[in-house]
């Protein structure tokens, strides 16, 4: 029998523990250390506790509340939003083509379904698609982007469908990581950020480079701050990419066109690959705010930006007005990507075979909805507008109610689906949290959950300036629940403040 | 403006190329070197060429064939297999619950759909599920495993639903990789293998440790060979996991119970984490062959194996009798996993939010199909049996026709969906291939594709003993096409052999 090599750099592994059991192969000490470093607050300890509380309620345990309200995650349909009828009609027809003979489905839904089935292997959603996604749907996405961007061309060959936007973001980051020690890839991300970014960078062993959004100026992005972050990072890593989330998650700001131009100039000068997380492009509510895609701005800036600046832009079926999170559909468009790298990306995607086909089908509807002449147009438009109008009203209400509460300050929710209010926490509460080994805002959010059933995510899970405290709360609860919820939360904060004063 | 750090260990990056263009940030030289090393033959150059040929045919280019037959990938529905009606009925009802009022759906399908919708957030497939998958469906999977394994208990908390089996395999491998240089994680994989394994290990920068299946004994797995591979590997890495594919892909063997016992004893003695790829558990055709799950054998071996040996077993909705590849459903069951590691796995999965819900729904049907008393039972059984019986006949026919051809030798296709015949290639063909910079079997398969339209994957994409040549061909083409296909392929081989003799 051969003996394991005792490498100099690793401690010898104990083969048999004290109790006579062999030690496990896979333990906290022997597992992938990068995975250990991963954190993901949106589904972290507070959400696990919320699940437990729901179970306790079902078992009849008495609580000071009757239901847990999950305002922790951008999951519209879990909060009661109804699916858009047309999307589900087409998908049902594709899933079960016998329905194509049913009189209960509109003609345009049937036409769409037949067109998609024609493009599927064996005319079935059950076949793998090509790894980049069904060609027809990539063409639909390209047409959508062209319409969105005022006619600027989009090439279907630069579009890759994905398992939600997260999957595409991970793929692009995976291409970018390289080097060791001081040449390790650094990636600039906003603080506050959506923690997919920090989690992915930890998993990939890349360096997270924080740039701070300016809370005093409604979470504006400032190029001077980008430059500060970049310069400091160059001491210890090789910054190669810059992530932007617009509209902002968790911060809800919508970037002005001039700001986007400045960011593009900065990225070009500093040789940074741009990653534009634009999954909330349909979620813009504030008057005067407008979504500008990085692709459009970059193209309109002309050469050298239009011809050379590398960009990946991400979109998803999980947000917008449709909120079809469970289907895991999305895409990335790459711009000015090196041709050989693009082949490598194609190869990497092929290992995963293909994105889920139902998510591809829903994406196809989102990017090519009913036209005015189609029988489904009126209902589709009405449903879409109703969702977006209600979201806009809820965005406004959230800002308003929070800003009436002493000790809470909330920037305008210009877009996306979240408020990220700042809360003052009394020094004695901060001290108590430290005694418990908790971040002060985690302590606040846990107490909030236990006493009110409201589940929000502490700001520390997204990043915030030292000494400031926030939480992220979605604007998704139904209107009739949202106002009482906001008031209950404000009252809890007041009580919490008194308790620790 | 700050200057980039010129790290000692990295060559300075050229900022501006000769033509005045800035060099791209992301190039072959600067991208992730692990991704560059990834190879995935099942969708490699031969498949890209097949796609091109299909396009040329559509454009009216004259070819010596009228259609490309994609026998490269285990994609039953792409080859014309019809979906199982009950699965699609339930899914259509879940996608578009208005159909619950339709008289065209059987009552048991409606009951199933209602039960699933009750378990979904907001009673909709459009909500995220918990990251490990819908609890109800995990319970269904646990019951299925218990029935399959003769009553041995399965815990739903040890079951994680996934985006196809590939996703779950990558997750478990990701937990296992650690170390550098001689302590780098080594993973034993069979040769020939399914190239997901080599691709994943390259991407994760782990060490691939090859053990050879014995072609002379119908691709049997021999513990002496496992030991040889392990001992040699310990010189340069730290082997920590052993992957088994049973029934075999691409090799089609079904492991005997004694063999599985020997593998488990070996893994236990040598402290290897077992990964059992059992996605073809429903695809067993040969008389006398039977599927034994690693979980069942391990449990029946009693302590210390039953209580200590770590195991992950994978299953999928893409294979079996249903072949629902496009939905990307699957699961992993973990056994004897360290509790703290399991929490880490849970956390890692949460970053990806959740597996696609439609795939979860299909999995639920696969693990809890109609019972004999249900209205859909008869049709479901008939459809299921028809698929499996035809696959069995095609497995037999494939073996038979190939073995009639001089220079081709094919082991019995006891299970799974592939034959992996060995072909003799004349020395002059080998030489010609080398001149062209191609693996000899790639040269053969490319010529086959160009002259006959038959797309199969060269053995070099799966691994094979030096100096032997194979290809993988699915048994999925419809019966009426399969015999002519096999004969055409055999004739082409004869012609190719004459040409280079």
From TrEMBL, chains A, B:
Annotated localization: Cytoplasm
MF terms (GO), sorted A to Z: L-alanine:2-oxoglutarate aminotransferase activity; pyridoxal phosphate binding
InterPro entries attached to this UniProt entry: ALAT1/2-like, Aminotransferase_I/II_large, PyrdxlP-dep_Trfase, PyrdxlP-dep_Trfase_major, PyrdxlP-dep_Trfase_small
EC id: 2.6.1.2
Needed co-factor(s): pyridoxal 5'-phosphate
GO biological process, one term: L-alanine catabolic process
Pathway assignment: Amino-acid degradation; L-alanine degradation via transaminase pathway; pyruvate from L-alanine: step 1/1
Catalytic reactions on record: L-alanine + 2-oxoglutarate = pyruvate + L-glutamate
CDD domains in the record: AAT_like (cd00609)
Entry's Gene Ontology cellular component terms: cytoplasm; extracellular space
Pfam families listed in its UniProt record: Aminotran_1_2
Domain Aminotransferase class I/classII large: 107-489
Keywords: Acetylation, Aminotransferase, Cytoplasm, Phosphoprotein, Pyridoxal phosphate, Transferase
Subunit structure and binding partners: Homodimer.
Family classification: Belongs to the class-I pyridoxal-phosphate-dependent aminotransferase family. Alanine aminotransferase subfamily.
The protein's role, per its UniProt record: Catalyzes the reversible transamination between alanine and 2-oxoglutarate to form pyruvate and glutamate. Participates in cellular nitrogen metabolism and also in liver gluconeogenesis starting with precursors transported from skeletal muscles.
The name this protein goes by in its record: Alanine aminotransferase 1
Organismal lineage: Eukaryota, Metazoa, Chordata, Craniata, Vertebrata
């Amino acid at each position: 029998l051969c003996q394991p090599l005792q490498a100099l750099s690793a401690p010898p592994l104990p083969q048999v523990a004290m109790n006579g059991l062999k030690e496990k192969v896979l333990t906290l000490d022997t597992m992938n250390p990068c995975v250990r470093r991963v954190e993901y607050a949106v589904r972290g300890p507070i959400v696990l506790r919320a699940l437990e509380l729901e179970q306790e309620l079902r078992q009849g345990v008495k609580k000071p509340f009757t239901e847990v309200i999950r305002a922790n995650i951008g999951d519209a349909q879990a909060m009661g939003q109804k699916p858009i009828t047309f999307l589900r009609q087409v998908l049902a027809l594709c899933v079960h083509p016998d329905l194509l003979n049913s009189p209960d489905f509109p003609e345009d839904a049937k036409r769409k379904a037949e067109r998609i089935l024609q493009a599927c292997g064996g005319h079935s959603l059950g076949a793998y698609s090509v790894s980049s996604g069904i060609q027809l749907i990539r063409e639909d996405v390209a047409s959508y982007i062209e319409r969105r961007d005022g006619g600027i061309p989009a090439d279907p060959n630069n579009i890759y469908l994905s398992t939600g936007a997260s999957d595409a973001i991970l793929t692009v980051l995976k291409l970018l990581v390289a080097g060791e020690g001081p040449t390790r890839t650094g990636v600039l991300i906003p603080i506050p950020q959506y923690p997919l970014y920090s989690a992915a960078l930890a998993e990939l062993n890349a360096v997270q480079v924080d740039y701070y959004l300016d809370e005093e100026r409604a979470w504006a992005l400032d190029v001077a701050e980008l430059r500060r972050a970049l310069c400091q990072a160059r001491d210890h890593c090789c910054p190669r990419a810059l992530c932007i989330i617009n509209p902002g998650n968790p911060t809800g700001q919508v970037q002005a066109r001039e700001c986007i131009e400045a960011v593009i100039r900065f990225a070009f000068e500093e040789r940074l690959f741009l990653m534009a997380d634009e999954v909330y492009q349909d979620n813009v509510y504030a008057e005067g705010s407008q979504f500008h895609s990085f692709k459009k701005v970059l193209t309109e800036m002309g050469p050298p930006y239009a011809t050379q600046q590398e960009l990946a832009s991400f979109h998803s079926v999980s947000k917008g007005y449709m909120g079809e999170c469970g289907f895991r559909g999305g895409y990335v468009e790459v711009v000015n990507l090196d041709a050989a790298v693009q082949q490598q990306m194609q190869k990497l995607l092929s290992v995963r075979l293909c994105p889920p086909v139902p998510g591809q089908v829903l994406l196809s509807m989102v990017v090519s909805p009913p036209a005015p002449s189609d029988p489904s147009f009126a209902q589709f438009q009405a449903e879409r507008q109703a969702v977006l109008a209600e979201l806009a009203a809820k965005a406004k209400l959230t800002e308003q109610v929070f800003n009436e509460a002493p000790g809470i300050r909330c920037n305008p929710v210009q877009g996306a689906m979240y408020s990220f209010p700042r809360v003052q926490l009394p020094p004695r509460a901060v001290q108590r949290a430290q005694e418990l080994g908790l971040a002060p805002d985690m302590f606040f959010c846990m107490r909030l959950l236990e006493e009110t059933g409201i589940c929000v995510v502490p700001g520390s899970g997204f990043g915030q300036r030292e000494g400031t405290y926030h939480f992220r709360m979605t604007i998704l609860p139904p209107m009739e629940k949202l106002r009482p919820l906001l008031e209950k939360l404000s009252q809890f904060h007041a009580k919490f403040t008194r308790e620790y004063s």
